[in-house]
Amino acid sequence: MGDPRMLVIGHDVTPETVLVQAGTLGLWARERGVEVVPGVAGTELPDPATVDAVAVLGSMQGAWDDDVPWLASEIAYLRRAIGAGTPILGICFGGQLLARVLGGEAHRASGKQENGWRTIETLAPDVVVPGPWMEFHFDTFTAPAQAELLATSACCHQAFRDGAHLGVQFHPEITPAELETWVARWTGTPLEERLPELGVSTDGLRAETVERAEASREASWVLFDAFAERAGLTARTAVA
Fold first, then answer.
1. With 80 as the cut, is the pLDDT of residue 145 above it?
2. What are phi and psi of 32, to 5 degrees?
3. Among candidates 199, 114, 190, 192, which has minimal Cα distance to 157?
4. pTM of the model
5. Integer Cα distance of 202 and 196 in angstroms
6. How many CA atoms lie within 13 A of 52 on its CB side?
7. pLDDT tens figures, 160-174
8. Segment 121-142, tens digit of pLDDT
9. In this prediction, what percent of the chain has a pLDDT beyond 70?
10. pLDDT at 21 over 50
11. Please, are residues 92 and 125 in contact by the beta-carbon 8 Å criterion?
12. Is residue 125 classed as helix, strand or coil in its secondary structure?
């Protein structure tokens, strides 16, 4: 039997950029013997029954916005994955979309925005460890009614688990290299102009992400290991 395969879906990027944006998830997968298969929303993806897990990364689009050209096909794909029993890990936009397809809601965030490194309230420290996590979102989710809520903040639900599926609002996978893909996308856009009012500076975010990189990686691996255990990957990814 070969290594388990995880499809990692990015949005409006190339497959090569998906591998960068996978960040610590890609590092974790390599250490645990999981093959990462990069995919891009709106393009042909492998049959979800032929992969062992699916991870859905962030996006600048709204998981609630049915005018996004590729959104309907991605929703249909995730429903196929759920029907096939393929576990899904959703990150930020991916968490919002996962909540939506499991019966929860994806919607615009209300109240104070969360951007940068923020401390959240963990209800399951064996999955979501205490401490700052990277946040960068203007939308969020309401966890499905049947799901186990794992973490919250004053703004919104932050993490939930429904069987083998796990959705988070924050960015456990963040690395300095991934952050640079974000900076490249917002440079010269209205979002860059909004950063000061959001309390974010590009240089400050870079510096803090470098400073927190190792602690963030360690925390992310706790989360990914918890997902792998529920997803049935543990026995196949155990390190001798």
1. yes
2. -90, 0
3. 114
4. 0.94
5. 9
6. 22
7. 999 999 999 999 999
8. 999 999 999 989 999 888 899 9
9. 95
10. yes
11. no
12. coil
Give buried/exposed letters for 56-82 (b at 16+ CB in 10 A, else e): bbbbebbbbeeebebbeebeebbeebb
Residue 60: phi and psi, rounded to 5, are -80, -5
Distance between CA 134 and CA 118 in Å, rounded? Answer: 6
Q: What is the average pLDDT score of the chain?
A: 92
Write the CB contacts of 58 (distance below 8 Å, at least 6 apart in sequence). Answer: 11, 21, 91, 92, 93, 94, 136, 137, 171
SS3 142: strand
Per-residue pLDDT, 238: 45
Domains annotated for the chain, with CATH where assigned, are: 5-175+213-237 (3.40.50.880)
Integer CA distances (angstroms), 127 to 2, 87, 107, in order: 27, 16, 25
- Token readout for 43 is 């393009």
> Tokens at residue 167, please?
């959705």
Reported as a single tens digit per residue, the pLDDT across 52-87 is: 999 999 998 999 999 999 999 999 999 999 999 999
Other CB atoms within a 10 A radius of the CB of residue 15 amount to 13
Sign of CA dihedral 133, 139, 145, 147: negative
Structure tokens at 134: 């990277």
Tell me the C-alpha to C-alpha distance, in Å, between residue 111 and each of 138, 155, 169. Answer: 10, 7, 16
User: What is the predicted pLDDT for the residue at 39?
Assistant: 98
